[in-house]
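Schema walkthrough. Field components (list of strings):
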Amino acid sequence: MWLVIALALAFLYVPLVPSLVASLAGARPGEWTLRWYGELWRTPLVLSAFRSSALVALLVGILAPLLGLLAALAIRELRVPRLILLAMLMPLFIPGVSMGLASAFLFRLLGIAPSLTTIVIVQTLWALPFATLIILTAMTTFDPQYLEAAYMAGAGRWRAFRDIELPLIASGITGAVSFSAILSINETIRTSAVQGPWNTVPTYIWSTYRQVGLSPVLYALMGLIIIATIVIVLAYLLLSRQASRR
Amino acid sequence: MNSRPHHSRSITQAADRFQAWGRRILLSLPLIFVAIFLVVPLGLTVMISFWERAGLKFRPAFSLASYVSLIGGARLEVLRRSLVVALEATALSLVLAYAIAYFLARKVEPATARIVLVLFTIPFLINYIVRNVSYTVLLGRTGVVNTALMSAGVTDAPLDWLLYSDFAVLLGLISAYMPFMIFPLFLSIGAIDRQFIEASALLGASPLTTFRTITLPLSLPGVFAAGLFGLVGCLGESAVPIILGGVGYELIGNTITSSMDVLNYPLAAALSSIVILLMLLLMLGWYLVFDMRSFLGRILEWRA
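Field assembly_structure (string):
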C-alpha cells in the first residue's frame, strides 16, 4: 500500500518539476539561469498582478477565518447548527464556473464594477468552508467547561472568549488563515469571472497561456507560485510545531 | 438589586437585551454573507437563464430559448459527455482515495498519517493550471513519457492517446480532486468504533466480510461527501478540458465559459442552472439521508 501512496504522490508532484526546470533553463541545454525570474520584475503587468494577489490574499486571509470563526461560534450557540453548517459548506458544492458566473451576474445587476473588492468577496466565499471546518475541528478539542468556569469567576462572554477560548483554538485560526491565503493565491476560475481589468497572478498566467502560449517567463511565474505555496505551508507547519512544543 | 432605583435596572436590562441582539447579529453575519453573495446569485442565474439575448446584452423576459437551443443542438451531447467523464473520474478517484484513506486511518500511526495527508494537501493547493500545463509537457508526442517509452522499446511510435484525449482529461481531473477526497473518507473511516471491527472478527467474519458489512456501510457518509466533492469539481472544471482535452474538446465547464466569452449570458446561465440544480439536489439528499454527526463526528456532538 505504501507503494500505491508513493505512486499517487509521485503522480501529483512530478507535474511540478517541468515548470521549475523550464523556468531555470538557459539558452543551451545544460545551462541554468535565473534570468527569467529577473525578467518578471521588469514586466509591469506581472508586478501589478503580484500586488493584487498579495493584497487580495491578505484580505481573504483575514476575512474568511473571521467569518469562519463567527460561523463556528454560531454553530455552537444558535439553534440551527446543521443549517448553518450546510450554508457554510455550500460553496464547496457549487462548481467553480457556476459560482463565478453567478457572482458576475450579481455584481452586474447591482451595477458594481469589477474590482479587487469583488475578487476578495468571491475568494472569501470560496475559502469560507475550509476556514470554518478547520476552526470547527480545533474547537472540538476545547472543553466548554472552561467557559463555564470563566463565567462563574465573573467573566463576561467576550472576556471569557478572548482570554480562555481564543488562545486554546489559536492553532485552528492560524491554520484557517494560512489555508485561506493559499486558496486565494491559487484561485483562478471564480476570480476570472469577476476580475474585470484586474489581474491576480493565476489569472495573468491563465490569460497569457490562452492568448500567447507558454514562455520561459510564464514558467518562472508558475515556479514562483509553487514556491510561495510550499513556503506558506512550511511556515505554518513550523509555527504550529513550535506552538505545540510550548 | 432591590435597593437600586427602578429606572437603572430597566436600563441594564435594556443594555443586556441590546447586547444579546448584537451578539445574535454578529453570529449571523456568516449566514448573511453566504445568503447575499451565494444564494441570491444562484437564484439570479436561474432567473437569467429565462431571459432573452438582445444584441450584446440581455433583457428580462420569460423565454425558453436557451433551454431549447440546449436540447436541440450538439450541447446535449456535451452535457451527456460531461456527466460521463465526471462520473468516471469521480468513481476512479473514490476507489483510489478510499484505499489510501482506509490504509491511513487503520494501518498507520496517527502522526505518520498526518504527514502523508499534508503531502496530499500541497498539490491540491497549488494552482491546477500550473499542474495541467506540466502534464502537456510530460505527455506530448515528444514529451518525457513518450521519449522514455520509445527508448525503452515499449513502443515504436509515440502514443497519441496520452495527450488531448479522454485519458489526459481523466488524468487531469483525478489529479485535481482525488487528493482532497481523501479527507472526508479518512474522517469517516477513523470515526468508526473499533469495537465493531473486533466484535466482527471475534464472531468469525473474514476481514473482507467485516469490511463489506461494517466498515463500508458506516463510512458511507464520507463516501457520499467525497463523491459529491469530486463530482462538483469535475463537472465545473473548465481549465482541464481546454488544456488537456485539446481543440474542440468540450465539457460543460468550458462550454459555459465560451458562451460567456461570446456574451451569450442566458445560455451560460441555462447550462449553469442545470449543473447547480443537480448539485443542490445531491447536497439536499446528503443532508436528509445522512446524519451529519456521523460524518463530522465530535464537531457537532458537544453541542447537543
